[in-house]
Amino acid sequence: MKKHIEYRLWLAVRVWRGFPVEVKGFRRKSSAERQELAWRNKMHPEYDETGVFPLQVL
Hints:
This protein has 58 residues and is of the alpha+beta class. It is 21% helix and 47% strand.
């Protein structure tokens, strides 16, 4: 019987004017949050959005 190893990845998602335009995967949450901050510094806060989400990989 094989043993399943679970991995957690973190996705940083950038939404421009309501359309998801960029998704980047990271091994560490801090790296994903750093990418989110870089996007937030260049985006229009009323129309654009970004977020960090966990992704569990089996």
